[in-house]
Amino acid sequence: MKTAVLHNYHQPLQFHDLPVPSIGPLDVLIKVHACGVCGSDVHLVDEEFAPLSQLPVVPGHEVAGVIEEVGEQVTYLKSGDRVGLPLNQQTCGNCRYCVRGETVLCPEQRFTGINLNGGYAEYVKAPARDVTIIPDAISFEEVAPLFCAGITVFTPFKYVNFQVGQRVAVLGIGGLGHLALQFAHVLGAHTIAVSRDTEKLHLAKEKLGADEAIDSSTKDWVKQLQDMGGADVILATAHSSQLMSQSIAALAPEGTLVVLGVDKEPLIMPPLVDLINNRKRVMGSITGSIKDMREMLNVAATHTIRPLIETYPLEDAQLALDHVRAGKPRFRAVLTMT
Length: 338
Ligand SMILES: [Zn+2]
Ligand SMILES: [Zn+2]
Fold this sequence. Notes:
It contains ten helices and 17 strands. By secondary structure, the protein is of the alpha/beta class.
């Protein structure tokens, strides 16, 4: 099978013809049809996940395909099922998080495309319990990014006491943000797009479900949010701790800042009385558990939430990575394995 492999950090991918992986009794073998290229794949190449990452590795944790073969003890999936494989897999099943269904917090879990071979390949294997059936309505190319970007922006709604009609501001309109706006819109939020890119703000209002748009390059962007009554939820997808820090002042009482974008600089907290008097919260969130995955896919299928994608053949995986590094794709890059 054709694969793109990362052998050394900071080096280009290498292409190999490798044997199709053999599966255990509880595994499935997936014939990959599409695999998203996530910003995290660039961080992998840049050694930012070491020592968690293990080389050589086939990158790719937004996998969508068809089951080719099931292990002898797998009963609820069969050959021909359309399934996706996310970042998080091989959770222990026994820890305090796994038993609550919060598999994403399992300390024993392993990571697709980071320390287990992922989807930049024609085939990938995984435990059957870690894959999720893809609704018929969504194509492989369009569903792939939902397995990381989609679940990342959907999960916070489960944990911020979100109520229909609340104001949800999305900070940064990129791979995550353009999906965050769509989910917020269909879940019943009053949505506010925040970006310094006026073209993206226009698109956000035209196509992505934004009710309002705020240019974050203006001096008074925080005040504009405050004048609307403040945000009940801020989904911060921009990789800027400075913007996130400023945005805490724009939270409404009981509002929550959800940190999703990564930045090396720390958050700068506001005066404590602002947090205390207004019962504000700051939380982080990463991808989501398998139970949230099913719900997210159903919401996306029912309400026609789709990522805007650019596709590349597997052979162009390095080009796709380079484009993601440069921030070029509008808004997600997806490899296809036809
Ligand atoms: Zn990802
Ligand atoms: Zn566990």
